[in-house]
Amino acid sequence: LQKALQKKNYKHVTQLILLQNDFDSIQVSKAFQNLFQKTLISELSCLPGDTWANLVKQWFKQENVANIDVEKGIQMLQEAFQQNQINYDVIIRIITNCSHQSFNQMIQSDELDEIMKKLEQLNAKNKKALKLAIDCLKCQESGVVNVIRDAIIGIGTDNDMLINTSVLFYKEREQIKALYPKLESDIKGDTTGKYRETLVYLWGFNKK
After folding, report:
1. Which of 61, 125, 154, 194 gives a 20 to 30 Å CA spacing to 52?
2. pTM to 2 decimals?
3. Number of domains in the chain
């Protein structure tokens, strides 16, 4: 996180924050303050005032505890997307306050499928941040899959995030592999040499 903040790599900051669960946020905050003698929340407060930055700041507070009425939540999201100017404040408020249980109930709704399609009309930065937050609300491993796919697919490889996720979520690797059946072939097709060997080892693909 400190490296990403220093380099102003806000994409990495967004990913590293959204991938944290409640326990992670507490531990990361303590470690950050001990290492750098400053609070992480104060560093995040300096992020630009864009939509994705507001999402990151609110998410870091880890207040995903509200068991909101599912129908009301869906209605609020529909209204937020129906306006000529998308109401990001409402969208972020629901995503950062809704409990995982409530959100997973909302996911079962056909109406939410239509809302998710409307994410495509957002600019790339906001769309990626919101999609990642939604995946993380489903489950942390789903968010990790989102970040790994983003690191691998397309032109070039985001080596920093591929390494970060491989190391940070080593203990959850079996759940992640179950959600990402093509992970082995994607890693082998996108990396070479000792780097590939290390990733293959970390993910346990060498134990067949």
Report:
1. 154
2. 0.89
3. 2
